[in-house]
# Entry
Amino acid sequence: MSHSTQPQPMTARRSGPLKGNALVPGDKSVSHRALILGALAVGETRITGLLESQDIIDTARAMEAFGATVERVGERVGEGEWRVQGVGVGGFSSPEAVIDCGNSGTGVRLIMGAMATTPITATFTGDASLSRRPMRRITGPLELFGAQVTAREGEFLPVTIQGAADPLPLRYHTPVASAQIKSAVLLAGLNAPGETVVIEAEPTRDHTERMLAGFGATIRTEITHEGHVITLTGRPELRPCTVAVPRDPSSAAFPVAAALIVPGSEIRVEGVSRNPTRDGLYHVLAEMGADLTWENDRTEGGEPVADLTVRHGPLHGVTVAPERAASMIDEFPILSVIAAFAEGSTVMNGVAELRVKESDRIDAMAVGLRANGARVEDTPDSMTVHGTGGLQGGATVATHLDHRIAMSFLAAGLVSERPITVDDASPIMTSFPDFVALMRALGADLG
Ligand SMILES: O=C(O)C1=C[C@@H](OP(=O)(O)O)[C@@H](O)[C@H](O)C1
Ligand SMILES: C=C(OP(=O)(O)O)C(=O)O
# Structure
């Protein structure tokens, strides 16, 4: 379901020090995968800590449309336990209606992969943002499995996929660093006989591989001269699991950033991911001189996590190497805000993928930061922010149906000289429904 079409403007004003404990919600990437693998397992999967945001609700509804049963157990918002009755690999049936994945690239791309090697037909659609995003990167490899695809202009939603009746296993080099491409191919490979192999030059988030192993699939990753080579044996019987979803490091980045830039702040964020395929931002922040203290390293839901204490302090600009990009791909909007409050220039290289997210994130950040007084340069695949230790503010920023653009500028407005308004805060519901309440509880002036 697409989110409300009624824009909800919101303004962030200069705030006192942020203090307290930030309990961010469940990881979006892990939540999608828990629902999809639960639907492909035989029997009942139980999920705790599932992110209850619009992107995830859309994936849950889609799994029901393909024949799984998905239900929420318990009363407390954000603490729900979910149960999925799976239909087994190859057990999906053709949905009666169009599958609307709303704003979610991960949802639509992983689900296309999951159904493309079963002889059923489904049509996928989404909101105006998702309808602008490239789908050929997914449908191309799915055609190699034997699926038949029609897409608007060969590239965009709506996309109709007729799944392959006799799928062939695939050996596939991903053309760009993308966990969504890797995951779509692996999920399609589940119902192909033999070994499906995905080769990625740069590692991307590995939640699909971790969770497939947890559900009993035979999957291994080798590091060779070609890069990360992931081999999955097709046609497993996936056994249902109990999945405890860890907290989302990409959501954690917003209160962390706010605490770093609002003078006098000190906050604690529990259960932040230390998965090396997700933690690039924290390495960059350390290089910028951020005061970060990690404690209680442990494993939660199969992911390495720790508790993070963040204190405000001076930051300096850095150059972010392109090899870091995949491990922090969703964190560049908020890094560009932090960079504006640092002293000196921060150069972000190898970030062309940002142009095909919920919005063109390089353009959205550059335009919004400039309107609020920052000096920013951009090229097709890089962005440079010339930090001056502060930001003037005073402008209204267009969020283009992009939750991360909205949250980034609301964090910036907490410390800019004049307030910053975002034209539409409603997309925040897609990934972090409690963002405003959580930030207000820390002391942020948002309204
Ligand atoms: O696999 C995933 O869960 C995701 C992969 C990334 O996208 P790409 O695979 O397009 O880089 C990321 O931007 C997105 O938020 C979540
Ligand atoms: C890019 C993102 O998500 P998706 O691709 O799932 O829409 C994101 O959450 O920043």
Observations:
- Residues 29, 106, 178-180, 183, 205, 329-330, 353 surround shikimate-3-phosphate (ligand 1) (CB under 6 Å).
- The chain has a mean pLDDT of 96.
- The longest helix spans residues 28-40.
- The chain has two domains: 10-25+248-446, 28-233.
